[in-house]
């Protein structure tokens, strides 16, 4: 009647174990061996999983999770995750988090977490997916990104230059404010340092953009 939620691979479970140890369940020695917890792989954030074998298991797991969701929860066709979901970065990010929530809910000793997943996490994901995809990628092949043109303009040299000028003006105003308050100490200590913003050097000694 129903299918079991897909189980994550061994490398994914190992990543979760390391995170649990770093979060406090491990000894000081174990935490020292793990190193900086900010560098640990987080399965709910695939971009943080830089080990190729771990990343491969992430994709395999998410593929199984999507198939499971489409079979167990998608009665209305509009609720189905499209087959081209790996080509939609917003879906990749959200599906990974949704899978993580469902995994944790399945490991809980009460039904509370699973009820929360059913009541909030899954419906919210479905609503956002519908809103973002609209009529794209329903019954045909993956469609070209509708926002491609705007994104290209956003990354264009002129747009980047205007943003860098706005950042520089803000930083210069902040530096001027600190200067008027007399917060700078001898030798310039305490003043903001020049910042590299959007690939451009912003000199906070200026009082505005060129």
Concise synopsis of the structure shown:
This protein has 7 helices and 2 strands, in the order αααααααββ.
Characterise the protein shown here.
The chain is built from seven helices and two strands; from the N terminus they run H-H-H-H-H-H-H-E-E. Helix 4 runs antiparallel to helix 5. The protein has two domains: 137 residues, no CATH class; 51 residues. Strands 1-2 form a two-stranded antiparallel sheet. It starts with 9 loop residues before the first helix and ends in an 8-residue tail after the last strand. With 210 residues, it is mostly helical.
User: How many DSSP helices?
Assistant: 7
How many individual β-strands?
Answer: 2
What about the largest sheet? 2 strands, antiparallel
The termini sit apart by 68 Å
Shape: globular
The count of domains is 2
What are the SSEs and their pairings?
Elements: H1 10-25, H2 28-34, H3 52-72, H4 89-107, H5 112-133, H6 148-154, H7 157-180, E1 195-197, E2 200-202
Antiparallel strand pairs: 1-2
List keywords for this structure.
55% helix, mainly alpha, disordered C terminus, 210 residues, 7 helices
